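Predict the 3D structure for this chain.
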Amino acid sequence: MKISSQQLYSFLFFVTAIKIFFSFFLELGNDESYYFTYALKPQLNYFDHPLLVGILIRLSTLNLYFVNDVLLRLGPTICCFIASIFVFKTAKLLFDKSVGWFSVLLYNFSFYTSIIAGWFIMPDSTQLLFWCAALFIMCKLVFEKKPHVENREFVENNKNLWLWVLLGSLIGLATLSKVHALYLWGGFGLFIIFYKTKWLLNWRLYVSVFTTLIFLLPLLIWNIQNKFITYTFHSARIIKTQINFESLLREIVGEALYQNPIIFILILISLIFVIRKIKENEVEKMKFHFLLLMSLPMIIMFWGVSLFNEIFPHWNGPAYIPLLILAGYYLSKKSKKIFPNWVKLSGALVLFAFISITILANFAPFNFGSQHKKNYGEYCPTLDISGWKDFSNDFKKIVTQDFSSGKMKPNSCIIINKWFPACQLELYTSRKTKLPIYAIGDLENVHHFAWLNQQRKKPQLSDDAYCIVPSNLPFDVKNEYSKYFTTIENRDTINQIRGHKIVRYFYVWRLKNCKLLSPDILQKITLTK
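Done. Predicted structure below.
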């Protein structure tokens, strides 16, 4: 089967166009909106993750000059496009163009690589770009041989210093997206120990590792300044010691759903096929082992963690990239069609998900969550990606009336006590009304908003403020803020209408006459001003 560059790029541009089209109809979810706040206050590191996702947002929005849903998601979409090219090049270098083609198809029909990391604005967006690039450079170092200039012999790339420096830089950049990208060195280190032991005496390897460490300096400096708050927070999430098989089962099922159930089954079949193939084909044995070592140990490690703690399926997502290449290899041996049935089914499932979620989020006359008024809509996923623009328009009308009538003071802000829904209020409501967001609460709840507070005016004595509570994220405003404000007026209600039915309530509270200044959330952390 012959695959041309025109076919490859036509497919990738088609997928890119589909993503851009749907970006017009789905608002940003909680996590996406939260990472938008990274771009508001550039730092060396953030409470939850390193800095690259904030930089990506700055680039895709032209330094926040144009901020909208389409441009915010354009950065991840471009990253997925480029990462796909590296997947193709890696599979082609290891095997041939047909394996590269099928690997790219699977990469773009996996929910994790193409949607979660390849369309949503997430730290994974930049991480996968540099992860795929690093895998390609590893393959060039190990499997590509260049003809010697002076004779007909072929020489390996392991003496090419610049390739080693590039590898260290790519892993460093992946780590500046999410720290667990350091596994790239773990998996490659295992391969070197098993297959390239002499490389342990190659000084260029250590230059490469040192290059990665240089990229970690922003993380180190920021965490020293902030008493390593990132790691004390995240380590507290994974310190349980009681075995929980249900947690492990949920993790495996979650990974299957994130990868695309059809592709997950294909990967399992491919693994069986490859294990048998290893015994028959010594030439490709090292290539198979390379891909397995760059994936399975990381997957097993996180499965072990999930046996004791609840974790997220996308943590293991990058480890599946080499397995997608193995699945591409399997398809190249079993099918002569450009789009085999496995690919058609997985692609159809992705397109069905896009269409159905778009329709439900914009037109469904019901929510999938609680039907009780006190927490109406709680646990409904479609409410995370809809309703915020309409609410912001309606809320702006209330604010305008309040200011013109003197009901609220014009220097009012919006008070929040948790990073969500604060993130969507920041992206959609604050930008629409020009009312700043200010966090009053615990660091564990407000996350990066504690640092955003540092560049915003704290509510002063006698100031007023708004507090907005969506019905799907209820909390007791009077209990939370009565010690800070003299009066908390009865709420106004803004309805989210979908399909001519109410699917959520937004409660607008007016907090009048600040009587007590809120404490600095970061007062327990030594900050370098």
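The CA atoms of residues 217 and 228 lie 13 Å apart.
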